[in-house]
Amino acid sequence: LARSLKRAWPEAAIDMLVFRGTEDALQGNPDIAQVLAFPRRPTLGETFAQIRSLWRKYPLALSPLPTDRARLYCWIAGRRRIGLLRAGAQDRFKGLLLNQWSWFDDLDTHTVAMGLRLAEMLGVAPCFEVVPPRMRPARLDGLLAPLADRPFAVLHVYPKFNYKMWPREAWIALASWLLTQGMGVAFT
User: Fold this and answer.
1) How many CB atoms lie within 10 A of CB 103?
2) What's the CA gap between 12 and 9, in Å, rounded?
């Protein structure tokens, strides 16, 4: 999503709001000006500080997650707000926090494609290019040291949702095949 927006608006400063502890996934991304990392369970004082720091700060705020918290932060931060809603009467009411919205489909549509729907709603061509973190933390360097700088594949064998989980035998077969191709294998 950030790459799509940056391609459409090269002069725009794109900030991302994430939970503290997840910001490394965006580290060094040239499309992102600033990563704001907030605690997952803020104290009352932290909550007020967050609201104060974000209040209508942005001309446009996007909520690519269909959660109450994401929509609320979107409403707080943006003068124009676009996001995703889950199907149902309850979420339709929550859509009042957004100026424009689309239904979230987590059964037949990949999460990345759902997020790119927001770009399409803005008239921005979706870009499917993945931008990995640019700089690796020292801990990650230590974990990857056994691969000895050879090419490797990263296998994320435990997705967030069980329905997306691939059978163990399939992961073993894929990892075995990668090894026969001379690739290293890293698991997340």
Assistant:
1) 16
2) 5
Nearest by Cα to 10 from 132, 124, 130, 129:
124
Identify the DSSP state of 41: S
Tokens 């926090």 -> residue: 97
Task: Return the axis-axis angle of helices 44-54 and 68-77, rounded to nearest 10°.
Answer: 50
Spatial separation of the C-alpha atoms in residues 98 and 89, rounded to whole Å: 15
Sign of the Cα pseudo-torsion (68, 73, 76, 81, in order): negative
22 compared with 120, residue with greater pLDDT: 120
Confidence of residue 135 (pLDDT cuts 50, 70, 90): low
Distances (CA, A) of 55 to 73, 170, 179: 9, 47, 51
Nearest to 1 by CA among 104, 173, 118: 118
- Of residues 90 and 49, more confidence is placed in 49
Mean pLDDT of the chain: 89
pLDDT in tens, 18-54: 999 888 888 889 999 999 999 999 999 999 999 999 9
Q: Which long-range contacts (CB under 8 A, 24 or more apart) does 40-47 make?
A: none
Sign of CA dihedral 162, 167, 172, 178: negative
The reported pTM is 0.74
One-letter amino acid for residue 104 of the chain: F
